[in-house]
Design brief:
Blueprint: H1 2-10, H2 18-34, H3 40-71, H4 84-114, E1 119-120, H5 129-143, E2 150-152, E3 166-173, E4 179-185, E5 195-197, E6 204-207, H6 208-214, H7 216-219, E7 224-235, H8 245-248, H9 252-263, E8 268-274, H10 280-289, E9 297-299, H11 309-312, H12 321-324, H13 343-349, E10 352-356, H14 362-373, E11 377-384, H15 392-402, E12 406-411, H16 419-431, E13 435-437, E14 444-445, E15 448-454, E16 459-464, E17 476-483, H17 486-500, E18 512-514, H18 518-534, E19 540-545, H19 551-562, E20 566-571, E21 588-593, E22 598-599, E23 603-606, E24 614-618, H20 624-628, E25 630-636, H21 640-655, E26 660-663, E27 669-671, H22 681-687
Parallel strand pairs: 1-6, 8-9, 11-12, 12-13, 14-25, 17-22, 19-20, 20-21
Antiparallel strand pairs: 2-4, 3-4, 3-7, 5-6, 7-8, 10-17, 11-15, 15-16, 16-17, 18-25, 19-23, 21-26, 23-24, 24-25, 26-27
Helix pairs in contact: 2-3, 2-4, 3-4, 9-16, 14-15, 18-19, 21-22
Length: 700
């Protein structure tokens, strides 16, 4: 036991804390917004992504740390040995630094947007009389009737505010000189538009919460307003079935509906506010009433959420848009597929590997559409984790069921923040006669699987790294394999059988299936490379993923590095392993790519020589939750052309010197400096799509 502990402690300098690493990732998102080379409106989008990411981080990860502090304040991170308080202190300090940069970047972007004639009115801007009268009437007749004001008194305690609800708060003074606190919740966005444009210049606008702030004295007319601000409460969303609801209701769909409701009732973890002047009394009151420390208050010089930017787009002149946005890119049709032909026959003849968003998801959508009508098809099974609204994929499943085919759909109701959509989706499918399952108690079904079974016992399988979602397929980089390989398809069938039986796959020769098999098989694959290195042979591992946190796998990477295995990791987000540490990770290189598209594919390659190299694509990241707490699937890639395509994708990502940052031996990320030839991997993959099976030569 002591030896194990010593070995763990010996590797502490090769690990970094998960929360710190996540903040570094969001910093890389912020750097995209800071970059003048990014089109102006796209910079605004990156600011929106940064804020949304940060809010979710506080709701989930900081919320979890807050709960842990209540349970055991001596608990330590098992990688870096940081206590909960140490982690929280770092998170709050780092967040404050990032928000300062965020505020500065927003001011820069806002100035740029003004040059295009779209002007967010500031408090110092003077308005024409007709504009002032227009805003007054909008407030009086359209907004004020929708506001329910609250004044905190002895008989009226602090009201409850839902997560992310935007509120105008005021410190009030009575005629007797006493303080009261008044609150004006901003009306539901479904009832009122977020931006209000001026009649004198439709390019000028004010946000609805700013208008309410301006006219707050007309609501609290019996008081003097001492100070006022706009704020929102971010609440702990660290919820799972162990919260007690799962045992309360045997119907899991109803259970998740209750969890969605309770999520908004969870304890506050952070308050964001926007104020022109100091508001000490209001902040003190909110801190006391919500049991928060001052360190949990963060001041923004920006709107408190960025959903309004979609309403801005129509304000820009069409001629300006090429300067404001990334160039329009249309995905090519799935290479290797004639979508107008018989897709089942084509896939039966040859495997097809599709790379999103550079190739369209239409090939997969059309395959399912054809299967729904095809008389040869007897059964369709599918996993759905996040589906788009008005999904053609869901329409095809419903159509297949109505045409008498047996359709089974495993809907994951616990897909974080998508539960409401998935509850509605499962109800829609059930009403159409689809056999809807909700996965396994305690284990999310995160695998991306489609299985089409024919009357001649042949099977067509689709195994992907990303969700079957037409919307995200335009913005996320993912890969998917369409195959009629009998061995792979049979094992996919076994995954569905096990899920329906509420059991786990315990044996598979080809697929790597969690929670029982994937982790151990990955360790074995790394061990194979270690043995090659020990024998004096070339050994290499290249892995692309979203996150790397699983300690046993990281320790195995360290061992492989010490034996001389060359390891290159492309990790977009959280990465708890530090490369280049003398004697430990000297043979490991780690880079992150953050660009126009969200890097989402998981590709694992083992071996230095092409002829013996092993390729896998996976739904799982290298995280404990994925490898031991979820149903995930990785498939081998046997087809020669598909393997070449994966090799080309990885080679292009490893050559990126525009969107890539590399982690150094101190755990810090630095942008890769562009050489004589600038290589933007996402642009190369998009432009070279039709030639993807050939060697890609980036353009100067």
């Amino acid at each position: 036991m002591q030896n194990t502990q010593d070995a763990q402690d010996a590797n502490v300098d090769a690990f970094t804390n998960r929360e710190l690493s996540w903040l570094q990732f969001n910093e890389r998102v912020l750097e995209e917004a800071e970059s003048p080379s990014i089109p102006t409106f796209e910079r605004l989008r990156f600011l929106s992504i940064f804020m949304g990411n940060l809010d979710e981080f506080f709701r989930v990860r900081v919320g979890m740390l807050g709960d842990q502090l209540l349970l055991d304040d001596d608990w330590k991170d098992n990688q870096t040995k940081m206590t909960v308080n140490q982690q929280l202190n770092y998170v709050f300090r780092a967040t404050r630094r990032l928000i300062k940069r965020f505020n500065e970047t927003y001011q820069q972007v806002n100035k740029e947007i003004r040059k295009y004639g779209v002007i967010h009115i500031e408090s110092t801007d003077k308005l024409e009389k007709k504009d002032e009268e227009y805003l007054r009437r909008i407030f009086k007749f359209k907004i004020a009737p929708l506001i329910t004001p609250f004044i905190v008194e002895k008989k009226h305690p602090m009201p409850f505010f839902e997560n992310d609800q935007i509120i105008v708060g005021c410190t009030l003074i009575t005629k007797n000189g006493n303080n009261r606190f008044g609150f004006l919740p901003v009306p539901n966005p479904n009832k009122v538009e977020r931006i209000i444009c001026l009649p004198s210049n439709p390019g000028k606008f004010i946000l609805v919460e700013e208008l309410i702030l301006f006219y707050a004295d007309r609501v609290f007319h019996k008081f003097t307003i001492e100070d006022k601000m706009i704020f929102s409460v971010v609440r702990n969303a660290d919820i799972d079935e162990d919260d007690g609801l799962y045992d309360y209701d045997p119907n899991f769909s109803d259970t998740m509906a209750k969890i969605v409701e309770v999520r908004n009732l969870r304890a506050p973890i952070m308050i964001k506010y926007q104020a022109n002047d100091a508001v000490p009394k209001l902040i003190n009151y909110l801190a006391r009433s919500n049991y928060l420390f001052k360190r949990q208050f963060f001041e923004y010089l920006t709107p408190l959420e960025f959903n309004y930017i979609s309403e801005l787009e129509p304000l820009f002149d069409k001629k300006m848009k090429p300067k404001l946005y990334f160039p329009i890119r249309k995905p090519v049709k799935s290479l290797g597929l004639d979508e107008n032909g018989d897709l089942i026959n084509q896939i039966s003849s040859k495997d097809v590997l599709v790379s999103y968003p550079f190739e369209s998801i239409s090939g997969m959508v059309n395959l399912l559409h054809q299967a729904a009508k095809d008389e040869r098809v007897t059964e369709i099974s599918m996993t759905l984790y996040r589906a788009s609204k008005h999904s053609k994929i869901v329409e095809s499943l419903i159509k297949a069921s109505k045409l008498g085919k047996k359709v089974t759909c495993i809907v994951e109701l616990r897909a974080r923040f998508d539960e409401e959509n998935n509850i509605e989706l499962s109800d829609q499918l059930s009403k159409a006669g689809v056999n809807v399952l909700y996965g396994l108690p305690g284990y999310k079904v995160h695998s991306k699987l489609l299985l089409i079974e024919l009357s001649n016992n042949q099977k067509i399988a689709l195994i992907g790294t990303g969700n079957f979602n037409e919307t995200t397929a335009r913005f996320y980089t993912d890969v998917a394999l369409m195959t009629a390989n009998a061995d792979i398809a049979s094992e996919v069938k076994q995954v569905f059988i096990n899920i329906q039986a509420e059991s786990f796959v315990q044996q598979a020769e080809h697929l790597l299936v969690s929670p029982l098999l994937m982790k151990q098989r990955l360790i074995e694959l790394i061990d194979e490379e270690i043995e090659k290195a020990k024998s004096g042979l070339s050994a290499r591992i290249v892995m692309k993923m979203n996150s790397l946190t699983e300690k046993d796998l990281m320790k195995k990477f360290i061992e492989a590095s010490q034996e001389g295995v060359k390891i290159e990791l492309i990790v977009r987000g959280i990465c708890c392993l530090i490369p280049g540490v003398p004697g430990k990770t000297e043979n490991i290189k780690i880079r992150s790519i953050v660009g126009r598209y969200l890097e989402h594919s998981r590709i694992f390659v083992f071996g230095a020589k092409e002829e013996s190299r092993k390729y896998y694509i996976s739904s799982a990241d290298i995280m404990t939750r994925n490898l031991t707490g979820r149903v995930e699937v990785a498939t081998p890639i046997y087809d020669k052309d598909a393997r070449k395509k994966l090799a080309w994708i990885l080679k292009t990502c490893l050559a990126d010197n525009v969107n890539a940052s590399e982690q150094n031996s101190k755990g810090k990320y630095k942008h890769v400096k562009a050489g004589k030839v600038a290589i933007d991997s996402q642009s190369v993959l998009a432009e070279m799509g039709p030639k993807s099976e050939k060697e890609a030569k980036p353009k100067k």
